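Record type: monomer structure entry
Structure origin: computed from sequence
Chain ID: A
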Amino acid sequence: MKWYPHVTVATIVERDNLFLMVEENKNGALLLNQPAGHLEQNETLFTAAIRETKEETQWEIKLEAFLGNSLFTSPVNNITYMRTSFIASALRQDQSQPLDPDIESALWLSIEQIRANKHRLRSPMVLSDIERYLTGERYPLTMLEHF
């Protein structure tokens, strides 16, 4: 069997000191995550992040910056995820858009609420990305090129 990492994207969206998060049902457990998901065929990392955010939260966003990449191997399924994370601003919510089937709700949480729910985070990348964002880490989107 050939090994390869799963390419995913995630978006950090902050508004009024609150972060846009999703509560998702994974194997009967309600976990917290940023809007995130897999890169699809013939899609750029940018369009994947915008699409996943809208599908999971109903929010249209504008990508502002590149936060960074993370590599994580899940102890649950032994899958390695290569995650590209972005910083975005919220533009408008489209409540007519249904949420992805595994998303229970989209919510705005403070950093304190996220830290208090550390045991419910989908992976260590969730809090790590927010902490990196809070330290001011950000890079221009031009660091990523799509051919």
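Annotation 1: The mean pLDDT is 96.
Annotation 2: The longest strand covers residues 59-73.
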